[in-house]
Amino acid sequence: MTTASHRFSFCLRETMQASLLAVTILCFGIVFFSQAVAAQTFTVLHSFAPQGDGYEPQSGLIMDARGNLYGTTFKGGQNYDDGGVAYKVSHAQGGWVSNLLTEFNPGQNGYAPQARLTFGPNSATIYGTTEFGGNDGCSGYGCGTVFELTPRTTPPPGEPGFDERTTIYRFSGPDGNWPLGEVIFDPNGNIFGTTPDGGTHDGGTVFELARVGTQWRHSVLYNFTGFADGAQPLAGLIMDSAGNLYGTNDQGGGSCYCGVVFELSPSSGGWTYHVLHTFEPPTDGGWPYAGLTLDATGNLYGTTSGAGPAGGGTVFELSPVAGGWNFQVIYALSEQQRYAPQGGVVLDAAGNVYATTSGGGQYFQGSVFKLIRQNGAWVFTLLHDFQGIPDGAVPKGNLLLDAAGNLYGTASGGGEYASGSVWEISPQ
Question: How many CB atoms lie within 10 A of CB 388?
């Protein structure tokens, strides 16, 4: 899709969501109510500054074995090229300190990272994508890249612990372009990911990068057509123990083109594509920005950014059953309260669900919430409403939950300098 197509689909989505909300309220008489805030401690670990720092983080975080956090920002940098950065937030002197790992500049090595980072098989090298750069194609923005950051054995004092990144693949358009989602690895060390645009039908692709010696060989596993199979995967993929890939499309599918959930299964002839669910508002939501989460029993969880029974998006579950999948909305978000989740969900050991909304809340800056399964139903518990300044605003990325039950995330705006933040919620 072109940039103009993105704008058109966004405007169409907003118009449809408003109409669907009005119909839903009229037909179902939905009653909206507030929920109590759970006992917890919210802490800002880092506020991004527009000068000399990255800003506007679009993605969530990853954590190493020492509890250090890693992420990217869409914009910013010390050289003021506004290409974004990769950063590390770590414990220091009883608090937290942020360090720049690498800075992205417009050009052949890529810029404007929007995806969450990924640890490689050795748990040391870090991989990611940039939306733009890599070449001069794709309307002059460049078609995007996949990169790696390799740790230094003995970094000089005061310098980042990672070498300058290496670009391992540059997209060209026919093979996909403008990747927004994170990459994942299979047990053999091969990389899998998506692009929301480009490919044979300009509907996006699922791709693989297979390591061959010291090189990476790119192949397209699937080209989306934009019709019943969906189009525009904005998020990355997940893989189950059998090697099946699962993901979401923000566009295409049914009559409203509100997206699908899909599966790619390895077969002797390549890969077989299946649509697991087609979104049809107002009953089940539409336009999933985020990817999926897989639990221990094979159930898939995700979010839709709009529509649904209460007009503000949904949290959903897909459970495998004989001959297919059973879809259910486990919580419908309200456009009058907290709405438009753009990140996915994370599960704790008890099966509780955590997620964010990018809109609504007491201060209209988004929220963090928890869904607890009780007596066969899901109960909404509010964890935090963002205020903008000083804590953050409009969280978009996935959440991270550590073994102690601490929750970590980013806000794309707000914070002390109105440029985004990294935050933690600790249970009391």
Answer: 17
What tens digit of pLDDT does each residue of 50-73 get?
888 999 999 999 999 999 999 999
Dihedral pair phi/psi, residue 22, rounded to 5°:
-65, -40
293-320 in b/e burial notation, b at 16+ Cβ within 10 A?
bbeeeebbbbbbbbbbbbbbbbbbbbee
Helices (H) and strands (E) in the chain, counts: 1, 32
The single-letter code of the amino acid at 87 is Y
Region of 414 on the Ramachandran plot (φ > 0 left; ψ -120 to 50 alpha; else beta): left
R_g of the chain, CA atoms, integer Å:
20
Say what the pLDDT of residue 37 is.
61
> DSSP for 178-211?
---SPPEE-TTS-EEEEESB-STTSS-EEEEEEE
pLDDT digits (tens, 9 = 90+) for 14-60: 444 444 333 333 333 333 334 556 678 999 999 999 888 999 999 99
User: Whose CA is closest to 57, among 67, 47, 43, 44?
Assistant: 47
51: amino acid identity, one letter: Q
284 is written with which tokens? 């089940």
Q: Which of 100, 90, 147 is nearest to 120 (CA)?
A: 147
DSSP characters over 141-182: T---EEEEE-B-SSPPTTS-SBPPPEEEEE--BTTBB---SP
Question: Exposed, middle or buried by CB within 10 Å (0-12, 13-18, 19+), for 350?
Answer: exposed
SS in 3 state form for 70-122? EEEECEECCCCCCCCEEEEEEEECCEEEEEEEEECCCCCCCECCCCCCEECCC
C-alpha to C-alpha distance for 134 and 170, rounded to whole angstroms: 5
> What pLDDT digit, counting tens, does each position of 81-126 carry?
899 999 999 988 889 999 999 999 998 999 999 999 999 998 889 9
Residue 86 sits at φ, ψ, to 5 deg, of: -110, 135
Q: How far apart are CA 406 and CA 370, in angstroms?
A: 13
Q: What are phi and psi of 187, to 5 degrees?
A: -60, -20
